Amino acid sequence: MLSSFKLFLLVVSTILEISASTRGDFPYYHGDYKTFELVHPFVEKSSAQEARLQFNAFNSSFVIDLIMSRVNLTQNLPEHCDHYESKSQVSMATVSFCSGTIHAFILDKTNTYSLIPLDNEKNEHIVYRKSDLKYEPICGNHPKSPSGNRDEINMKRLKRSILQSRPYGTHKKTRYIELFLSLHYKIRNKYTKNSIFDKEKLDRDLSILMMNINKLFTGIDIFIVLTGYEVWNKYEINVLSDSAKTLKNYLSYRKSLNKKHYNDMGYFLTDKAFANNVVGRATKNTICSDSNSGGIAYWGDHHQTALTIAHEIGHNFGMEHDEDNEQCKTSKSIMAAKADSSDSIDSAKWSKCSREELENAYFRRFDICLHNLPKVNAINPKCGNRILEDGEECDCGTEEECLSKCCHASNCTLTAGSQCYNGECCSDCKFRKVSTICRDSTGECDLPEACSGKSQFCPEDAFKTTGYPCAENSSFCHLGECVPDLNAQCKAMWRGSTSDPQCYATIRIGKELCGKFDYATKKYEICNKENYRCSPLMCLHNQESSLFLTDTYRRRNFKYRHNGKFCSLQLYDVGRQARDPALVQIGTSCGNGRVCVDDKCVNASLVASSCGNCSGKGVCNNLNQCHCDKGFAPPLCNKHGGGGSLHSNSLYAYDEESTNDRKTTIIVVVIVIILFLVFMGVGIFFAVNRVYFDKVQRNIPFLNSWRRKSPRQWTPNTANSFRGKTISNPVMRRSSNKQLPNIPPVRPPPPDFKKAVPSPTAATHTYQNTQEISDKPVISPKPVVSAYTLHLRNENESKLTVC
């Protein structure tokens, strides 16, 4: 009975398949597979960010736990899908929910599955297995094709850290490929129904394609950004079954395309199968070449197309097929030349050999155009996708995955009392203090950045502008680095070689091709007398091979002998956005106080002072702002402050209010000290000149009226009178240091009025003790202010004691 039931299911399945195929709602690549299964998948969403996909196919039950993807790496492409990734580390899956339909790409330990919706309203989906393909997909590149002089050079290995997976836009070592797609005009027919082109459906499929491509590159820290696409209305190139000729035709077409749509790489997608089961082909070692960076791929199952494009981009980086390397000969990774029918999760990984070849590509500067960060669209701007968007205070993911105590995962608002939830300038849910250094200087040409106290994010990296001297004034700064001299540049390009002035002396001004390539005119600039040292890097060497790039990048090669020495000048094609590494680097010294800028030799001081002289207290940064020294404030560095710039914020703690208080205190103290010194000086001056000022005072009646009346001082007018009574002329003597004998006072005898009154000039005075004071007439000296003081014993005394 069981066998009869199985037979019944087989018959029903066959009927459904025949019915579906006759309806014409299968994808156009349905014929590529030998078998398939119709399913009705079930989706359960546990939250806005998490879901579970379930379906049964090929005698297996599929249960896949999913989490929403963070970024849709497309530009100007409307988004109609919610993209999810598998949580499991054992398997890999990318799932897109688009207007009620499901697109899934699943890899487990044994096989690869594609879940595709049928074009009907019955929620019918079809499942393909890669092992059921009618053909074995093959890369069109020759297995043994050369990849430059890799084996000849003992290359220095880069640190493995550059190949680690990181979130989009979070690390300087991340590479970004700006991809442009050209779609064959027959693909337009696949998306046209009743003469109406369904652009929305094509946008959806391209979004799914980019989702799957980037899933394959996340393990090596590379992001592929779709900058644009075009769908042809006619034959733009001759598409042949020969993949090599078709690739050549497309790369020739791409040269004209680059003028309208800049890109790092272009790929042509066609629904036409190539000969010998070839599904893709690409040039090697051409990742940034303006003329050769690109490839072609068969547009079939979107998920298989993603694997093909990832494989061919590997060739653009210089990767070889794993079969060509003994260490990875048995590998079944992305760079396998043939897609094995037993492909599993390993087919979506990069082998050890591929990673090492990618490191070599980076060392040889193949990635020279891949460091700029393109702007991309965020998927589903909503709370819970861990992307901080307009209207959100924070976004820590779903409630299940949010680990932040600062953020409410349910509504993306900060918790009570929180100011922030992450970032270099956020600590324990609070903004870090003003002037907290969040990015220190990495060298003498770099500048530090500090927290503002108002944001959780550290400012973008800033550095000294081009032209500031460095390396003990032997070189100049450019892009935050001290530019090496010509000798070092030659050694980097040609290993053991150096720069020789004799090589430059051989340049014929006005005739040689010295400058960079002009993509508009397709010509090189001509040498001139003023700037020839800033265009070609001319090196003296022994005909060594270039350490960087390969012959696929070379446009011009000049080698000649001069006075028995070999000189070399080479120019390369590295795309429109990158600078040819064979040109003299910007920031190179080209004379006394002069620097190379944009292939011109200019005054370094003029370049370095693009924002002014910053009051002599700072330097100009790359944003043309003054970066002030400690103790001075931007924007002009003419006021006191904490240093830094308007961009980098204050670098040192500086409290303006307390500083003003300190200033006020200092001013008050200084004023008090000055006043004290003034009063002290005046006092000392008057003390030293007291005699003089007393004399002046007596000669001025007004001042004399204010003199003190007690004790009375001797003056010529009062010399012979006291309280209106006339006394005999006193004999005034200067007091000496000798101490007079202590003689008690004795009342003198009454005057004898009968005797003649003595002459004033002959007056004689004696003491009662009969000791003669003076027996000679004394002439009264001229009165001196405050030199003597007269003391009278009483009103009746006529004796005058002089002290």
From TrEMBL:
Entry-linked CDD domains: ZnMc_adamalysin_II_like
Membrane topology summary: Single-pass membrane protein
Coiled-coil portions: none
Cysteine pairings via disulfide bonds: C438-C458
Cell location: Membrane
Binding site for Zn(2+): H311, H315, H321
Alphabetical UniProt keywords: Disulfide bond, Membrane, Metal-binding, Signal, Transmembrane, Transmembrane helix, Zinc
GO MF annotation terms: metal ion binding; metalloendopeptidase activity
Gene3D superfamilies: Collagenase (Catalytic Domain), Disintegrin domain
Protein name from the UniProt record: DgyrCDS9766
